[in-house]
Write a structure and sequence with these properties.
single chain; alpha+beta; five-stranded antiparallel β-sheet; 2 helices; globular
């Protein structure tokens, strides 16, 4: 089976720092694969919060994760602070991909990259809903950090 290869986007519009705690580390002494998803999920929550939204109400719609990709580039260790950069991309009628890159603040070493597939949901029917136009306008105006 071939390995997942995820190409990073040209730039990012959001960044946050998250420390790796001992509870994020497995018996091998490095960042556990399930805990990577926990850290990236925290960064995702912070991304939406930076725009003034909660995941339960993004311009009137809750969101769910439809899929995700994670490609490891190196190990992360207890006590390191990770910088997680994100950018929304590849919009479709019902959602978009939130691409991310996680690297160590002190060394610049890339630890992981990937994407989170975000889907908007109609609160009443619990079925997919179109991306709210106000959200599209908001993210279109975000400045590029890198």
């Amino acid at each position: 089976m071939s390995r997942i290869q995820f190409a990073l986007p040209q730039g990012f519009v959001f960044a946050t720092e998250i420390q790796i705690y001992i509870s994020h580390v497995n018996q091998g002494g490095h960042l556990d694969n399930a805990q990577l998803l926990t850290l990236v999920s925290e960064a995702r929550v912070r991304f939406f919060k930076s725009l003034g939204w909660r995941e339960s109400d993004v311009a009137g719609c809750p969101i769910v994760v439809g899929d995700l990709v994670a490609q490891y580039k190196s190990e992360g260790f207890h006590g390191e602070t990770m910088r997680v950069r994100m950018v929304p991309q590849d919009f479709n009628r019902y959602g978009f991909d939130l691409a991310y890159c996680m690297d160590c603040v002190d060394t610049g070493r890339e630890v992981a990259r990937g994407k989170i597939g975000i889907v908007f949901i109609d609160r009443a029917t619990r079925k997919v809903a179109p991306v709210p136009p106000v959200f599209l306008e908001q993210v279109a105006g975000l400045p590029n950090l890198s």
